Structure prediction request, 301 residues.
Amino acid sequence: MKKNDNKIALGYVAIMFAMLFWGLSFVWIKHLLNNNFPVFTIVFIRLVLASAVFMTLLKCQKKLQKIDRADYKDFFLLAFFEPFLYFIGEDFGLQQVDASFAAVIIALIPIVISITMYFYEHAPIRWEFVVGTVISVVGVLMLTMSANGHIDFNLKGTLLLGVAVLAASGYSVQLTRLLKKYSPATVTTWQNFIAIPMFLPFVLIFDVRHWGSLTWDASAVFSLVCLALLCSAGAYMLYSYSVKQLTVTKTSIFTNLIPIVTLLAAAAIGQEIFTQTKFWGIVVIVAGVTFSQMTVRTMRR
Prediction:
């Protein structure tokens, strides 16, 4: 029992670090975008770097499991859902709608995942989880809403963000299946590697012609390395480990902590202004996430 409790505790530690890295990723991405790095190029480079480094390390340590032929389809679907389809939906959706509106839509992912897992894995939907998620969504709204309380609605942008939400649900189903057989490190490494050719055509068609104007200074390289090693590789491995210990439904709500990390990091370097409303937004998000986890012990077998 004590060993099982330790695994649960490590699962919570893992998910907190994953959210830390993903929250910081928006600061690094914003820096690269300000240096005229195209979106597809950023994703492509981080996937290539992450795959090269972690595939080499895991092979040297003989910890990279070989994919069974019967699982090729599941790994392809995993990479297709995320990062490919998720990034397409989220990045292009953000170009159409206000960031506040996008944050609220993305914050609904835990509920959609919970419903999806109910149908595919017969995972029970707890009322504590639903209530906690709704509370955290309200906190996200408080955290991201502009000073005048205005939110722009755009049908195209909303549909694209809906694609991202559905992609996250599909990813959760595939991840749960694959973690029954493969380690988090193996799943994440192959996931990134398989996604590379998915993004390559978009890079060649839309981005290559802009490469001559890119500024390859130390800060840009640092941002790309952090995105690759900490976000595309490290955070996904930590998230997968947490899913393995806590289940994907309980883990998913922690993604609503990402805006908190992003806000605090951006405020620290002068990109954001920290207001009283945002402070209370953080309080509400943390309260919602905490409430959703209150019965985690009673639900485990």
About this structure: The chain has a mean pLDDT of 88. Residues 128 and 295 are 8 Å apart (CA to CA).
